[in-house]
Write a structure and sequence with these properties.
Blueprint (H helix, E strand, L loop, with lengths): L4 E6 L3 H16 L3 E2 L8 E6 L4 H20 L4 E6 H6 L1 H6 L5 E3 L7 H9 L4 E3 L28 E5 L1 E2 L10 H4 L4 E2 L2 H13 L4 E5 L7 E2 L2 E2 H8 L7 E5 L8 H9 L6 E3 L7 H6 L6 H14 L4 E8 L6 H14 L3 E6 L17 H26 L3 E9 L7 E5 L4 E4 L9 E10 L2 E6 L6
Parallel strand pairs: 1-2, 1-3, 3-4, 4-5, 5-6, 7-10, 10-13, 14-15, 15-16, 19-21
Antiparallel strand pairs: 8-9, 11-12, 17-18, 17-20, 18-19, 20-21
Length: about 450
């Protein structure tokens, strides 16, 4: 009997990547092996993102191509999971006859059951939420799966919260991933220790608003403190925090603990207080900048990245200039800028989308151009410095070269390197090309 093969294509954020890894583990227990060739698969899953319009469009475009696969082999099972599935639900089944099952983020552990239903001739819709406890504590990873997380190379993702209660007016997350819940600290630590025992050197703590974590007596500070002290764990990262829940105590912990990486992704979205209020961000730009200034005062080498939206409804030219001023002051390592697009079901969908497309495109181009100047200067400053990097992959282009990252999340290629994935190296930066650093080894690998 041939071993069944599954193909998963993932759109969106680290949370979606984590969900896909979980699906890989679930399917492996059902006898599936993974393939990177969709034509080889007897099961095809699209794990979708609806935070922006473009990933959603890509999903429907790919489903159009999958119709041909279904016509060629009617036994192929096609599923749509994730945020678009939660948002669109039955509409996907009505629009795309090739789709056999649609399931939201709370239901991927039910994959074996759903596949069995499809094999019995049913089309499956699974978008119900798990029950939300009054205290917002929910071990949403089933007990049998806590010690079955996925290690990819030397890193692993651990979801600590699910959903969001912020209701930013532009964001679909509360509607596609539900209201916020947190896992118990002991439940999370069990998973972290298991992942480290199976080779994980770097753990990413994940949540839509990761630093609003609260389970019984443990907040995010206490959880991060405990995770950073797990034996054998070299690095801890987390994403994405919200400025409202960030405080100087967390900044102090980051600066004090070597295992907590020197990198923080802290979205500010817009430089105008009026626009931030319209977005329901519940902070001012002055409050955001005060937190950044404190971080830099105790940790000058901290690498900061951010998200921002240009062309939010009614944003004026002067308000956009305020966004540019934030970029100039903070000197982010990298930005993730987006043109505003209305998302179904959000409050902002009812706002007049009155910033013309060409104006949005011009503002996006200006933000990117300014950031490129900042990035180039920051990259040049690395040349000649010593850095500690964690090797995470072989370089696909050069023999005897390995790739890794600094604790500030800068990607690095090391030539003439015999290190293995998971090794830590001391290197000297010799050059850079765009967003990538080149380096040479100055110390032997530290396992």
């Amino acid at each position: 009997m041939n071993t069944p093969k599954a193909y998963i294509q993932t759109f969106g954020c680290q949370m979606n990547e984590h969900d896909s890894y979980r699906m890989v583990e679930v399917l492996a227990r059902q006898g599936y092996t993974m393939t990177e060739e969709v034509d080889e698969a007897s099961l095809v899953i699209l794990n979708t993102c609806s935070v922006r319009q473009n990933p959603e469009n890509k999903v429907y475009s790919l489903l159009g191509r999958l119709r041909r696969l279904k016509r060629r082999d009617a036994e192929v099972i096609i599923g749509v999971g994730g945020c678009v599935a939660q948002q669109e639900g039955e509409k996907i089944l009505e629009r795309e006859r090739c789709v056999d099952m649609v399931f939201g983020p709370d239901n991927y552990f039910r994959l074996p059951e759903m596949i069995a239903q499809v094999r019995q001739g049913e089309r499956v819709l699974a978008t119900k939420w798990l029950p939300r406890a009054a205290d917002r504590v929910q071990n949403f990873v089933p007990e049998e799966w806590v010690e079955r997380g996925h290690v990819e190379g030397c890193k692993a993702f651990v979801s600590i919260t699910k959903g969001c209660d912020n209701f930013c007016t532009f964001c679909v997350v509360p509607y596609t991933r539900g209201r916020e819940v947190s896992r118990e600290a002991a439940n999370i630590l069990r998973e972290v220790r298991d992942l480290v025992s199976r080779g994980a050197k770097e753990i990413w703590l994940l949540g839509q608003n990761v630093n609003s974590y609260r389970a019984h007596d443990a907040g995010f500070y206490e959880l991060l403190d405990m995770v950073s002290q797990v034996d054998g764990l070299k690095r801890v990262r987390f994403t994405s925090p919200h400025p409202n829940d960030w405080n100087n105590r967390l900044s102090d912990l980051m600066a004090e603990r070597p295992a907590i990486c020197n990198h923080l992704h802290l979205p500010f979205q817009a430089g105008s207080d009026r626009v931030l209020e319209a977005m329901n961000r519940n902070h001012t730009i002055a409050q955001y900048l005060d937190k950044i200034r404190y971080m830099r005062s105790i940790n000058p080498t901290l690498e900061l990245t951010t998200d921002l939206i240009v062309g939010f409804p009614s944003e004026s030219d002067a308000e956009f200039e305020e966004t540019l001023r934030v970029l100039e002051e903070v000197q982010f390592s990298q930005i993730f800028p987006f043109k505003y697009s209305p998302r179904p079901g959000t409050k902002a969908e009812k706002f007049e989308d009155d910033v013309p497309r060409e104006v949005k495109e011009d503002r996006l181009a200006r933000a990117i151009a300014l950031q490129e100047q900042i990035t180039n200067a920051r990259m040049a400053a690395y040349v000649g410095t010593g850095q500690e990097i964690l090797i995470d992959a072989a370089n696909p282009r050069f023999r005897h070269a390995m790739n890794g990252r600094t604790d500030g999340f800068r990607p690095v290629t090391v030539r003439d390197c015999d290190a293995e994935i998971g090794d830590t190296l001391n290197v000297r930066i010799t050059d850079y090309k765009q967003h990538w650093l080149d380096a040479e080894v100055i110390a032997e690998a530290m396992v």
